[in-house]
């Protein structure tokens, strides 16, 4: 089993964030939905993160955390819990 470093996890999530939001994603401290995210882009983002990191990423997490740093932190914890 290959395990990701925190840097790899961050990169994977950032890549999915930018893919889902496009140019608006430059403000990665902002709220996903305030940056132009829609329900469709939220599902796209969630699906990319889940498949790349092999973690559970419920859509409610995006509604609760909203900003990229908080999402990275939560997903990193989920990854460590699952893959350690």
Report what the structure shows.
The chain is an all-alpha fold. The protein has one domain (6-83): ACP-like (Non-ribosomal Peptide Synthetase Peptidyl Carrier Protein, Chain A), CATH 1.10.1200.10. Helix content is 64%, strand content 0%. Helix 1 runs antiparallel to helix 2 and helix 1 crosses helix 4. It is globular and about 35 Å long. The model has no long low-confidence stretch (mean pLDDT 88). This is Phosphopantetheine-binding protein. It comes from Streptomyces muensis. Residues 4-79 form the Carrier domain. Pfam families: PP-binding.
CATH architecture: Orthogonal Bundle
The proportion of residues in beta strands is under 5%
What is the number of E strands?
Answer: 0
Category by helix and strand content: mainly alpha
Helix content: 55-70%
The largest pleated sheet is described as:
none
What is the molecular shape? Answer: globular
Oligomer: single chain
> Roughly what is the average pLDDT, rounded to an integer?
88
What are the key terms here?
84 residues; mainly alpha; Non-ribosomal Peptide Synthetase Peptidyl Carrier Protein, Chain A; 64% helix; ACP-like_sf; Phosphopantetheine-binding protein; PP-bd_ACP
